[in-house]
Backbone:
């Protein structure tokens, strides 16, 4: 009887009400990302619509199928900024990825919702992506060192980086036909 009262008190206090990793830690907002990506410029917002054919190409070229029907991005000149979500273990990780001339210039963890693996937000991990592009097989063109205990989060970051690079190629192709 007493343990039931303790459980009820804990649930009322919110301790048992939230699953692991349910609270998001937000590190960077959209406007902050855009200010970092485009200093002194106002980027133009665009939407890339992902048709079934484009989604199939993504799967065959980089081994990833975008889960959304459209992706919003911002562009100034050849530089694009993408805000993507990728699942770590169970929860989405929000990443801001800046691509210029086919290479990542900046990658930031904007929000993290998992209970483990938050170390990927640190610069010692994210700076490894600077200058990375895609090779002919749709993989990153150089290895990224993972973090012990954050393997799933590091893998999610790798997938988001590959997808952002691929999406930037599609946006470049689309811009050339406008």
Residues:
């Amino acid at each position: 009887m007493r343990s039931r009262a303790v459980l009820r008190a804990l649930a009322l206090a919110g301790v048992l009400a939230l699953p692991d990793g349910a609270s998001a830690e937000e590190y960077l907002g959209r406007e902050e990302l855009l200010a970092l990506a485009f200093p002194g410029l106002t980027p133009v917002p665009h939407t890339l619509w992902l048709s079934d054919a484009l989604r199939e190409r993504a799967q065959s070229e980089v081994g990833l199928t975008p889960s959304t029907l459209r992706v919003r991005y911002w562009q100034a000149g050849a530089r694009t900024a993408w805000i993507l979500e990728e699942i770590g273990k169970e929860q989405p990780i929000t990443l801001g990825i800046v691509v210029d001339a086919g290479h990542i210039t900046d990658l930031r963890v904007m929000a993290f919702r998992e209970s483990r693996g938050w170390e990927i937000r640190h610069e010692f991990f994210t700076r490894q992506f600077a200058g990375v592009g895609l090779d002919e097989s749709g993989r990153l063109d150089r290895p990224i060192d993972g973090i012990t205990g954050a393997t799933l989060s590091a893998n999610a970051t790798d997938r988001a980086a590959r997808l952002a690079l691929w999406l930037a190629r599609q946006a470049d192709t689309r811009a050339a036909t406008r």
Summary: The beta strands are 25-26, 44-49, 70-76, 79-87, 92-100, 103-112. The longest helix spans residues 151-176. Helices lie at 2-12, 30-37, 52-62, 123-126, 151-176. Residues 4-22 have pLDDT under 50 and may be disordered.
